[in-house]
Please model this.
Amino acid sequence: MRLWVDAMWAIVRRDATLFLSYRLQAITQVVGLLFNLTVFYYISHLLTAKAINSPGGYFGFVVVGLVIIQVLTTSLGILPVSVRQELVAGTIERFLVSAHGPVNGILAMMLFPLLNAFLTGAIMLGLAAVIFGLPLAATAPLAIPVALLGSLAFMPFALLLVSAVMAFKQAASATQFIVSGVAIVGGLYFPISLLPGWIRWASDVQPFTPATDLLRHLLVDAPLDHPAGVELLKLGAFAAVLLPLGFMLLRAAIRYGQRAGTIAEY
Amino acid sequence: MNSASTRVPASSEQPSDTSLGGSVIEVRDLYHRWKGPKPPVLDGVDLTLRAGEIAWIGGRNGVGKTTLLRLAAGILLAQRGSVRIGELTPEARGGRYQRQIGFLSAGDRGLQARLRVSQQLDYWARLAYVPRARRAAIVARSLEQFGLGELAGQRVDRMSMGQRQRIRLAMAFLHEPLLLLLDEPRNSLDDDGYALLGEQVEQAAARGAAVLWCSPKGEDRVLAFHSSYSLVDGRLEQLQ
Model:
């Protein structure tokens, strides 16, 4: 177990070292957040829709959506690209010939981007509060464990995309499809009550809606449609069911690539 | 060790195989076919390497040497036939098979470009599950073995191709594997690097490892190989 932890930490530290070696990256990331917030701050001045039942108005509503988009873009968007780059660079091959193995290696590759996304999300909320006057709720610290649980529920979607990369080398279009789809049915930019009835069912069959609702409740005191316990249970159930499936799929994709020989292609 | 001490054996210097131990790797009836209309690249390959054995496999470009090494390393899985180290197969859980393998791929890939040399070796030591207590000493020893001491603090992407090859070799040898699979290990090495490689191969064999060295031609023979093979039409032909 200690050796497993050491290997996981080695990969997280490697990713952090690589990230920090591009010195302007962190600065441009924060400036980008500020621009993003500014755009939505002024858009929120145009919107007074009653459907947005949030104490912070549309700005408070959308900031939480933007934080979740940040996490999704990182976990669903960046990870498959990173895995693809590592296939090309031959560094995934090192996982294949190591005691740690490719599944553990890819799991570890998810950790630094997630940490980065959490930090970025926290900075985004801080900027929204300090610069744009967003009133954060006293329950905001409770958002941390909920965000962690939400990440576990999101992780299988990242594993699905990485599996596609391992087996077929491409997942860019699928990534865009999933992130955009989640933005619609998860209610990240607008309330799902605005969606037509025939599509609203999609909001109930994925973990993004309960995660978004819970985080909005904890961060900006938005009211919940269902009791918090039910939303937490849903989130936990999605994670418990989908995570093992995600890892099984990844293992199968790697085995397929090893058997067919496509794992050596890029 | 300098290049003057490199042994370039004539065929009469082929070492005796009476000192070799039990089998390390057994490859049986190995078959692999890439997608497309081409015939199988490997078709019924059999190979056994014993403890202390240094073997060479040659053959034309594209004949399947790299595929054979990737199958032996567990990067690819056999479509038919088997690869075994004792009771372990590449499918074994927990990376137990991979712990026995030191693999050098052909080319210059597989390095974390922006890490420093010592970071690169420490990173690999952790992935290879080298115990904490021995890790720092093993990394230091690896740096010394491949003449990388002065480069330890430098970033990999600022190195020459030969220096990168030394790092890749250091990674293959670092965790003292039972089987070394070396695909064109001489790539980009200068005479000193080549001599260091020969020295490390001999030391690995002396501690009981088996070494499989692949290259297109026999010009790579800085060592006295116990056995030599040519890969032809998907099968191995023994040369000596």
Remarks:
- The first strand of chain B starts at residue 23 and ends at 32.
- The interface with chain A takes residues 32, 34-35, 67, 70, 73-77, 79, 94-96, 98-99, 101, 103, 105, 107, 109-115, 119, 122-124, 126-129, 131-132, 171 of chain B (CB under 8 Å).
- Helices of chain B lie at 65-73, 117-127, 132-145, 161-174, 191-206.
- Residues 1-12 of chain B have pLDDT under 50 and may be disordered.
